[in-house]
Specification:
Nucleotidyltransferase, domain 5, single chain
């Protein structure tokens, strides 16, 4: 019987609004149990500093130019995460074996093998007196992968544990949208058509994953630029606007690729600038929905099992009712929110990084050729315990 560990996962996404924290119990292999989930909003000064810094880092050269500013903000981010950990430990008086520390992404360029997450693992370990697993993406990049997405192996665990019918796509709509296809007992002929040359279908892991493009990032950016709000709650602003099909049709083409950074859509965002506040929100939401479904159709349209495929949606984007409505309009597939299966869609990623921390400790793979395009299944992450 496998040993179980208590692990605390910390995830802060591209929205940069706060930290999702989750405590789980897991063997790092085939079972897990959610213990506690909580969201911690960043103070306004951290949020403003983060978004301002991200906007200034256009290329990898800027990482060196802004090194002093990065270090200063990294310390603030780490101290905030330490407060989150200590708060979680007070709420659940259990011995946490690991802290899975994702950090705050400010730059990601897979073709240059560069990814930068703000977060000092050594300092976090010192402030919490816990074993910290961090820097989880770099080993994948070093081994030919895209550094993302890392959650598919946890999605597979969810499918197995909750006995979810396959084939299924778990669609995570965060700042960027990523998907995990989980399938069982397919013949090579059934999965022979795939669009990405760097990834391979295999029967062994029964999964395949990647990014589709923008999720919340364009919509959030529009709302923040044109109002004092941080996001379009429930999609109300977009629903009150008129979708401009001409603007969408003439929008700059975003080529299908393995992974994205929010800066990949800068030119696209400015293309919508001539629209009113409400019409821009509506049109960007429509564009986002279309990009998700169109890209999935390109990847999977020739597969014979496609008619049995269904979708489970997680991530913050699932709360945008207008976005979900537009996605449903564009596909005949059955679509449900992951919450319908009594899985909290707000904390799938933070639970995933708690799980990945344990797998890293056990030296088990966290990324695979069919998820990130790495050369072989590999583990990742640095493990530190401050003494």
């Amino acid at each position: 019987m496998s040993k179980n560990y208590y692990s605390l996962g910390l995830m802060s996404g591209t929205s940069m609004d706060g930290v999702d924290a989750s405590v789980i119990q897991t063997d790092g292999k085939s079972s897990y149990k959610p213990i506690l989930d909580k969201y911690f909003e960043y103070p306004k000064d951290i949020f403003k500093s983060l978004t301002a810094l991200r906007d200034k880092i256009i290329s990898s050269k800027d990482l060196k130019k802004k090194q002093h500013q990065i270090k200063s903000l990294e310390k603030k981010i780490t101290i905030f995460h330490a407060k989150v950990v200590n708060d979680m430990l007070k709420k659940k008086r259990i011995n946490i074996d690991f802290v899975g520390f994702h950090g705050q992404t400010i730059f990601h360029k897979a073709e240059e093998k560069i990814t930068k997450q703000l977060g000092d693992g050594k300092l976090l370990s010192k402030l919490t007196n816990k074993k910290v697993v961090y820097d989880l993406r770099k080993n994948d990049l070093r081994n030919g992968g895209q550094g993302a997405p890392l959650t598919p192996i946890f999605h597979k665990l969810l499918v197995d544990q909750y006995k979810i019918k396959t084939p299924v796509i778990i669609l995570n709509i965060g700042g960027i949208t990523n998907f995990t296809l989980i399938y069982k007992e397919l013949s090579p002929a059934q999965y022979s058509s795939v669009n990405w040359k760097n990834k391979k279908w295999t029967k062994q892991n029964r999964l395949f994953a990647g990014d589709t493009g923008p999720g919340n990032c364009l919509i959030d950016q529009w709302i923040r630029k044109h109002s004092k709000k941080l996001f379009d709650k429930n999609g109300k602003v977009a629903k009150s606007g008129i979708i401009n099909k001409t603007i969408i049709k003439d929008a700059p083409y975003i080529k299908l690729q393995d992974s994205y950074d929010v800066k990949d859509f800068t030119e696209l965002f400015y293309h919508f600038n001539k629209l009113s506040f409400k019409d821009g929100a509506a049109s960007l939401t429509e564009y986002t929905a279309a990009s998700i479904i169109d890209d999935l159709d390109i990847i999977f349209k020739n597969n014979k099992w496609n008619k049995n495929l269904h979708f489970l949606i997680s991530g913050g984007g699932r709360k945008n009712n207008f976005l979900i409505e537009r996605i449903k309009k564009k596909t005949k597939k059955k679509i449900k929110l992951i919450d319908d299966l009594k899985i909290n869609g707000d904390f799938v990623e933070s639970q995933a990084f708690a799980y990945l921390a344990v797998r890293s400790y056990l030296k088990l793979p966290i990324s695979f050729p069919e998820t990130t395009g790495c050369k072989k299944p590999i583990t990742g992450g640095k493990i530190i315990k401050f003494k």
